[in-house]
């Protein structure tokens, strides 16, 4: 078995869609980034890559490469799951926490798990939680959203 840890954060800005866990969440702001800036997917990607010892999301999907401009993060996650499989590993468990002052996210967890299941990780193997930052820092001030993820990989052999 291998364990990986991932983290991501992005600024909230007007005029962008808020995409979390592959789901368009109705909100007056969205996350700014080279891709769709889905911090939940990005944290999961980094956790899987960490478990593989394969660097981070920037190494595999650099924001300097126009190929990844406006990329759909669930597609990037699907490629990362395929990479793990190609190296002989299966994603056995994902545990995540999204930190956002607003919007409230608990009503979206089931649809997020369904969207993430399309990447090759069964939805029942994905835990999604949300916390606020109790009004502290850039997240508490509504300036951004962050996510953490832990991944357990099992060897296919």
Short description:
With 157 residues, the chain is an alpha+beta fold. The chain has helices at residues 39-52, 57-60, 73-86, 109-117, 137-140, and strands at 2-14, 18-20, 23-25, 29-31, 89-99, 126-131, 144-155.
Structural notes for this entry:
- The structure is a single chain.
- The strands form two sheets. A five-stranded mixed β-sheet has the order 4-1-7-5-6. A two-stranded antiparallel ribbon has the order 2-3.
- It contains five helices and seven strands.
- The model has no long low-confidence stretch (mean pLDDT about 95).
- It has a single domain, classed as 2-C-methyl-D-erythritol 2,4-cyclodiphosphate synthase (60s Ribosomal Protein L30, Chain: A, 2-Layer Sandwich), CATH 3.30.1330.50.
Helix content: 25-40%
The total domain count is: 1
What name is given to the CATH topology? Answer: 60s Ribosomal Protein L30, Chain: A
Report on the biggest sheet.
Answer: 5 strands, mixed
Give the CATH superfamily: 2-C-methyl-D-erythritol 2,4-cyclodiphosphate synthase
Task: State the end-to-end CA separation.
Answer: 11 Å
Fraction in beta strands = 25-35%
Order of helices and strands: EEEEHHHEHEHE
Radius of gyration: 15 Å
How are the SSEs placed, and which strands pair?
Blueprint: E1 2-14, E2 18-20, E3 23-25, E4 29-31, H1 39-52, H2 57-60, H3 73-86, E5 89-99, H4 109-117, E6 126-131, H5 137-140, E7 144-155
Parallel strand pairs: 5-6
Antiparallel strand pairs: 1-4, 1-7, 2-3, 5-7
Helix pairs in contact: 1-3
